[in-house]
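User: structure tokens for this one?
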Amino acid sequence: MKKVAILQSNYIPWKGYFHIIHDVDDFVFLDSVQYTTRDWRNRNLIKTREGLLWLTVPVRADRSTSIAQAKIDGTDWQQKHYMTICHNYHTCRRFDHFNDLLQDVYLDRSWDNLYELNRYFIKKISVLLGIETTFHGDEDFTVSEDRNLRLLSIARELEADIYVSGPAAKNYLDVALFEKEGIGVEFFQYPEYPIYPQPYGDFEHRVSILDLLLNVGNASPRYIWGGSS
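Assistant:
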């Protein structure tokens, strides 16, 4: 049974995002849709001694802009994000193991488009997690303006048996439309993830995947889907 998931690209997303990627055969970045402000597209949370902190990529975009059209505003943020991560995680057991990845993204490259940064980071982390899912961009497909038809057409082109959706889509997804085309729908349910060694006070699940990687390294899959990388 071929499973497909279709989601917007996010900036260094949390472990649940990678759980969905792991559980499907094909994953499609949906970046032709509206850019949403104060959302996960250009920011995510890390832990610090002072509490949770947003790492935000500055972009020139608004609600009339698609994610694919969102331009990154300047380069100063790259050094700032790198130094902030280093300052708060450098004592973690696996920091040195992943510092090359951080330097690659933040110091060795420059980024013009938000979606390119997001996709690159997500793909690199997926490799480190041992994920073998095939990635696509929605620009590779013929898509409709209608939200449901857009998702259905991509799933159909990929010859999906099952379309795996995020839980929030229960509010709008036309399940009958998919079933009429012979494609089943599964709404992903995030489990109660186990805790792992994490600095700075009470445990927080909804932080960037970097928190997990820098704390437990290659053991990270054990704390997401129960496997190993």
